[in-house]
Structure formats: C-alpha cells, structure tokens
Specification:
The protein is of the alpha/beta class. 45% of the residues lie in helices and 13% in strands. The chain contains 24 helices and 16 strands.
Length: 623
C-alpha cells in the first residue's frame, strides 16, 4: 500500500507491536490525501498484502465496510494452496455473516470444488456443538448423539427445573440471570448453594441431552482439552472478535493452541454485546499487545466515499423519503429476488424495537403502515411449526426427554408435577416417557395423535386444520405453508431446535432493525430513530458507531420531540461535524434549515425550558 508519492504505507507490523497514536495519525493524513480511486486501489493492495502474508498468527483491526469478506476469501485461497492437507474453519457469532460468506465461497469459481470441501463456515456455537457431538460430551458430561440446544426461550425453564429439585432453595433467590453471567465469564460456581444447583443443572442437561449456548462453549472447551485431535489440522479465521466473552475466548484459545495458523479480526470500537452476553473488548486489546501476533489494519471504509449526514426532527420525513426513493427501492426488490444483491435499500434503526418513543400523534402506527408496503414473506418456519415438531418428536423419539419436557410446558403441566416426574426419572434411571403418570400419559397420547396426522397422506392444508383441532395453533394457513415446505420425515432424526435448520431470514428492500441487531447489515440509505437524550441513553458509543457505519449513500439521524420524554438531541449527535451535516427541523407544513447541529440543539433546549416552566406555573383556582 502506497501514498501519493509512491512510498509504502506500513499497515502490517511484523514485530507484533501496536500501531502508535503517531503512526495512526500519519496514516490518516496519508489516506486523506488520496482521491477515491487511489484509496480503493490502496485498500485492495493492502488487503492482498495481508492475505498473502506468511505469519502464522495475525490480528487484523478492521472497521466497518473495510472489506473483511474479501480478505477472508483471499486468505482462504492463500491457505488452501499453502496447506493442501489442512482444513480451514471460519467462525463468528453473526448468522447473517456466516450465510453471506458461505454463499460467496460457494459461488467463487476461483476456488475448486475439492478445496471448498475443506472450508467450514459456521457460528462459534455451531462449531462448539460439532465438537461436543464428535466427542459424545466430556468425561464429566455423557451425551447421546443429536444433542439439542436449549435456546434462549427455554433457558429459564431448564434452570427452574434444576432449582425445583431442591426443597431447600427458593427459586426467586437463585435467578437464571445470575448464573448466566458467571457462565459467560467461564466461571461456573462450584461451591455453596450455587455450586449445588450448578451440579444439578449439568445433571439435567445430560438427562435432557440438551445444552444451553453457554454450556456448548464451556463443554466444547473441555472436550478439546481432553481430545485435541478434535481440532487437529485446522486453520482458523475468527471474525467479530471484539464481541466474544471470556468463555468464548477460552474456547478459541483451546482450539487454536496447536493450529497451524490463525487470523483474528475485530474492532474494539464496535463492541455491541457487552451487556447482552458480557463481551469484553479488552480481550481483543490483549491480543493486540501480544507480540506473537503480527498486527495489521484494514483502515478504509468502502461503503461510502463521502460523509452524508442529515439531522432531522419529525417522522413525516420517513414516509416522504420512501416515496421519493420508491423507484430505487423497487429496483432493489428485484435484485434481492434475483439474488444479485443481499442488502436492503433503506435500513431503519431504532434503539428499541417497540418504538414507544414514537407515541406522538400516532407517529408509530403511521410508520408501521408505511413499512408494511415493503414487507416480504418470512422464509423461516413459524412458531406453530416448531411447536408441532416438538409434539411430533416426543412421539417419534420418546427417549428425547427434552422434547417431552417442552411439550409438558406447552400443555401447562404445573412445576410441582414436573418436579415429581424428574425426581422419579432420575432416581429410577428412566426416561420421562417410561413413567406412569396420568398427565404424562395424556400428553403422550396427544403427541401420538399429532404424529399420526403428520404421517398421514392428507394435504398440508388439511393437516394444519386437523392439528388446530388438537392443539394450540395461532396461524393455520402459515402452518400449512410451512408443512408443505418442510414436511416431517418419518423415522427421521430428532431435530429439536432452530440451530439444526439452515434458515434464511427474509430480506426486504426496506428493513427495520434495532441498533444492536444491525451488526453485519448495510444499506444505501440508513435512518436512525430516537436520537435524543432519553431514548438513546442506553445505547453505547460503540453501538452508535455501528449504526452510523451501515450507510452507503445517506445517513439520517432523527428524534421525535416529546416522544418517550424526549426534549433535546443526544450528545452523540452534537459531537458530529457540521461540515458533513444538513440540519433540518420538520414541522407541519414544511421544514426549517438550521445553520448547525448546535443551533438546533439550542432551539430544542429553549423549547424544553419553556415547557418545563409552563408545567411549574401555578394554576388559577376557581372561586
């Protein structure tokens, strides 16, 4: 990579030392001096140099839109040629990134079919599950084939089952959220009450043959420790490293200890999951200071060649924006259907999915109605389908205790009964389906009836109607469609949760997402809602940075004054440079252009003060 004078710009630190502030400042100045074409050329040349580098251990700091997918493919080609007897595993935790990279590799004619077989792209949790399956658990945890995953909707149920087996413990004093944090930190309790409950939880996971996401990571780490051959001869690319927690880092360290090569990629400015799953950006920073890793950078965002930022107040803008860009949106719809484009045309981001801050003059309802015109059918099975599958699998695979337990939950069987059933099953070493209990037998007969319907020759629409007569079904038409697309296989394996399905989320030309959910997404136009001091209060700077960097052509930041208690702009907005912003105040009948973000903020502060003063003014009493 070279500057305007043809001199090389050092974006790879061979000695593993971090880039200094002075080096970063100099690099920024050199990149700023390049025109757009030269910057693109510099970006591509730098990515190729990184991809072809001989380092066995490399950490790449890569910001948004800097071409990570291209780097991954180039590194794959380099490794596949250099290590013809090895496999390459690419892992992240963002499913959309996994899906896109799989498609890119599958459609790349430059990679032979034989080499494609040596490439594995999956989420870290799915990789962990593969390790556990091949090892049949660990020395501590004996698991059968087809281990299920206790998804987020069922985690608290499984934990309550463990607590309920102990008369001496009150469930509300031992909430799932407390132990969850310790599992994220790879610190499961071993002593005291929590230690006792943890042992029971693990015992139940073995009984259910089902693990939570947290324990997939922890037990996969233990399995590799016991049997390093599980990950032998595998080179690793790990993406989004800034959002991994201590448990996940422990697994990554274990699987890469003897790896011939590894590439870690992340950006500590984009941490999104520090609250959701205890992600620690300091993990990435620790690797950055580890001189056994060669440090490199992908510094250029190729999504947008210039900064375009609008700061607006008013929801009517969105409907007008959609109308003005309708031709562009319709064209993108055609491209998505044809498979030539994966990105939305317009991406609307919100701090909270319920958008309660749009409670002024029915603004939320108007927005939902405007977006409904661009909705596409969800390509994933609906909730009814998964519920039906649980009933079916409980009948087809009665030894699947986890399926039987979920069906008992659907049927509303009380926890006291569940406790008695689990106690008897564990003490007698029997499956739940082998026990003689009225509520259990009634439930299993219902499961058998549902299995008979699904294995009948009836059309999916008729099956859906028959099922609706036997169990709770919210949308029979959707269920019929799902049964037609994903028919139940007689004598098939028990697949008990969505992780077993290669699901593809429907992509529309106009997408609505939370800010945290925007990871891996990009669009020509991005609109961020709720940019005020109240509704953006829980959003971190890193998350806001991710929101800003989703845009290719335009970025609009909006607040709805009065919505959810909003009065003024959030400090994040006020910190943006005016030279790249167009500032408008939207009102009935038109809009007002403001000289700067600060000018708009001062006006909003003045109005907020007037409203507060009016509320404090004493009212005249009637005589």
């Amino acid at each position: 990579m070279r500057d305007v004078n043809g001199e090389p710009i050092p974006l790879i630190k061979e000695d593993g030392t971090p880039f200094s502030d002075e080096e970063v400042a100099l690099l920024s100045a050199e990149l700023d001096a390049l025109d757009d074409d030269a910057r693109v050329e510099a970006r591509n040349e730098n990515a190729q140099e990184i991809a072809d580098h001989d380092a066995e251990r490399m950490l790449v700091v890569s910001g948004p839109g800097t071409g990570k997918s291209t780097l991954f493919k180039k590194r794959l080609v380099h490794w596949l040629a250099r290590h013809p007897d090895k496999s390459v595993a690419v892992s992240t935790f963002v499913r959309s990134l996994v899906r896109d990279l799989r498609d890119d590799i599958a459609n790349d004619r430059g990679i032979s079919d034989e080499d494609k077989k040596r490439v594995i792209v999956m989420t870290l949790h799915r990789h962990a599950r593969s390790i556990i399956e091949r090892n049949h658990g660990t020395q501590e945890l004996n698991l059968k084939p087809n281990c299920a995953v206790v998804t987020a909707d069922w985690e608290e149920m499984a934990w309550l089952d463990a607590v309920s087996l102990h008369d001496e413990f009150e469930p509300r004093e031992y909430p799932w959220t407390e132990i969850e944090k310790r599992l994220f930190d790879a610190d499961p309790p071993a002593d005291g009450a929590w230690g006792t409950l943890r042992k029971t939880q693990v015992r139940l996971e073995e009984f259910y043959n089902a693990l939570t996401f947290h324990d997939l990571i922890l037990f996969a780490t233990q399995a590799v420790r016991e049997n390093p051959e599980l990950v032998a001869d595998t080179l690793y690319i790990i993406d989004e490293f800034q959002d991994f927690n201590l448990a996940e880092d422990g697994l990554i360290r274990e699987i890469t200890t003897e790896s011939p090569a590894q590439l870690l990629v992340g950006d500590d400015d984009q941490v999104l999951y520090d609250k959701l799953k205890e992600a620690h950006p300091d993990i990435l920073r620790g690797y950055y200071k580890d001189t056994s890793f060669v440090n490199a950078m992908l510094p250029f965002c190729g999504r947008c060649s210039i900064h375009i930022c609008r700061t607006k107040v008013g929801v009517d803008f969105i409907t007008k924006f959609l109308e003005e860009h309708d031709d562009e949106i319709r064209k993108r719809e055609e491209e998505i259907r044809a498979g030539t484009n994966k990105d939305a045309c317009v991406l609307i981001l919100t701090p909270a999915r319920d958008m309660k801050f749009l409670n002024v003059d029915d603004a939320r309802d108007e927005l939902v109605e405007a977006l409904s015109a661009y909705e596409v059918a969800d390509e994933r099975p609906g909730e009814d389908y998964w519920r039906v599958r649980d009933y079916y699998n409980a009948a087809a695979h009665p030894s699947s205790n986890y399926n039987v337990r979920k069906v008992l939950a659907y049927e509303g069987v009380e926890q006291e009964v569940i406790r008695a059933l689990l106690t008897e099953a564990l003490e007698s070493d029997k499956d739940l389906a082998e026990l003689a209990h009225e509520s259990l037998e009634t439930t299993l007969r219902k499961c058998s009836d549902i299995r008979d319907v699904l294995e009948s020759d009836a059309e999916p629409a008729d099956q859906a109607q028959q099922l609706a007569a036997r169990m709770e079904v919210d949308d029979a038409a959707r269920l019929a469609s799902d049964l037609e697309q994903w028919p139940t296989k007689k004598n098939g394996d028990s697949e008990t949760e969505s992780l077993d399905f290669d699901q593809k989320e429907a992509i529309s030309a106009v997408e609505l997402s939370t800010i945290v959910g925007a990871k891996g997404l990009s669009a020509d136009h991005v609109i961020v809602l709720g940019c005020d001091e109240v509704n953006l209060a829980r959003t971190t700077w890193s998350a806001f940075f991710v929101a800003l960097t989703r845009a290719r052509k335009s970025l609009t930041l909006m607040t709805c004054v009065g919505g959810g208690g909003a009065n003024v702009l959030h400090d994040f907005i006020c910190s943006l440079p005016d030279e790249h912003a167009e500032v408008l105040y939207m009102k009935v009948g038109g809009s007002e252009t403001r000289e700067s973000i600060r000018d708009l903020q001062e006006q909003l502060e003045k109005w907020a003060y007037q409203r507060k003063k009016a509320r404090m003014r004493p009212r005249a009493r009637r005589s």
